[in-house]
Amino acid sequence: MAVLKLHGNPLSTATQRVLACLYEKDVDFEFVDVDMKAGEHKSEKFLSLNPFGQVPAFEEGDLKLFESRATTQYIAQEYSDKGTQLLLPGSNKTMAVLQLWKEVEAHQFDPPATKLVYELRYKPFFGMTTDSAVVEENEAKLAKVLDVYEARLAESKYLACDHFTLADLHHLPTVQYLMGSSAKKLFDSRPHVSAWVADITARPSWTKIQDMVKQKF
Amino acid sequence: MAVIKVHGSPLSTATRRVLACLYEKEIDFQFVPVNMGTGEHKSDSFLALNPFGQVPAFEDGDLKLFESRAAANYVAHEYADKGTQLLIPGSSKEAAVLELWKEVEAHQFNSPSSKVVWELFFKPFLGMATDAAVVEENEAQLGKILDVYETRLTQSKYLASDNFTLADLYHLSNVQCLLATPAKKLFESRPHVDAWVKEITARPAWSKVLAMMKQ
């Protein structure tokens, strides 16, 4: 059986997204650390795994993938019998509802959330100055998105349905970083969102990743 | 049989993405225009279809969807037997390659191309001033992404495989807009990308979408 390899950096949100999926599915894998400080992600060797020069990259035998959300989708599908059920099997209609909330994470939540992680966590860590205008603009955008989430989570235990799926998992890395910043108020002030955040970040598979992250610091 | 409805605007790149898919699949649908000029996309009745207040919204009987790529993906799966095959049937591994190139469109191509489209295509149309710095920055980024596409398209006729799939279709809206601006030079200077652009924009289903815009 082919070995699963994940090339990445434990601090990278995209790498954490795939790690979360691998742990939820209880699948063995080899983690290959990519030294981003040394520019390894731009090396010829890494570019042959991901021509966009970004972590993570994934291998399983002949299959080479990149883009974290393509990788998690593959793992959730290929190993659907193992570990946590992260999909919404049944019909094309049920899968469409999962797809919808995955798209919402990618196109509504991720853009403002990622900008806030950059301003509020990444920049201070590297001794750069936070741009408060960018923070204000993106907190306002994220607040509107979270208002929709608040309404949704009043009707549904998790985003796509009544169980945890990829749609929730994809949020974990960025949510975790934001909960360690001033932006946490956006989550705390919305009761259903706040409960959902507490629930998903307490999952054992996610706790394993937090331990990996702490070791890096 | 349930009626398929698309609520949107023919000028919206996201609406066109769904329309392209429906025409490729040769599926009957009802187009419900949403008057964005009067703010109809922010009305209560539209927000009931898409709480983010953006076009398009999609219905197939009881199923209500939004996010153009979720709607297109659903149509491609539910109507897999009709019209053009837009997926890669087979194993999870083969399907994964399609997922990869769909993600590349969403997370690499979409952002810089949308910014250039906004500056060079929509702003002049709306009588607003183009921001040259934004154009320069995003054209540079788009250039790097298209370098990766150039290499890929020397190895593969279309992005995900040797057949036209959703991964190519998702690009049509922004590609078409860019062709109407000076940014088309980014395609013209890359022979395999240029051939691919010409090929996908010449598809009959896409011509039907463009014909809708002219109404």
Features:
heterodimer, A: 217 residues, alpha+beta, Glutaredoxin, Glutathione S-transferase Yfyf (Class Pi), Chain A, domain 2, 2 domains, four-stranded mixed beta sheet, 10 helices, 4 strands, 58% helix, globular, B: 215 residues, 57% helix
Structural summary, described in words:
The complex is a heterodimer of chains A (217) and B (215). Chain A has 2 domains: 4-86, Glutaredoxin, CATH 3.40.30.10; 92-206, Glutathione S-transferase Yfyf (Class Pi), Chain A, domain 2 (Up-down Bundle), CATH 1.20.1050.10. Chain A is 58% helix and 8% strand. Chain A has helices at 13-24, 44-47, 68-78, 92-125, 132-155, 166-169, 172-179, 184-188, 191-201, 204-216, and strands at residues 4-8, 30-33, 57-60, 63-66. In chain A, strands 2-1-3-4 form a 4-stranded mixed sheet, with helices on one face. Chain A is globular, with a radius of gyration of 17 Å. The mean pLDDT of chain A is 96. Chain B has helices at 13-24, 44-47, 68-78, 92-125, 132-155, 166-169, 172-179, 185-188, 191-201, 204-213, and strands spanning 4-8, 30-33, 57-60, 63-66. In chain B, helix 1 packs parallel to helix 3 and helix 4 packs antiparallel against helix 5 (132-155). The model of chain B has no long low-confidence stretch (mean pLDDT 96).
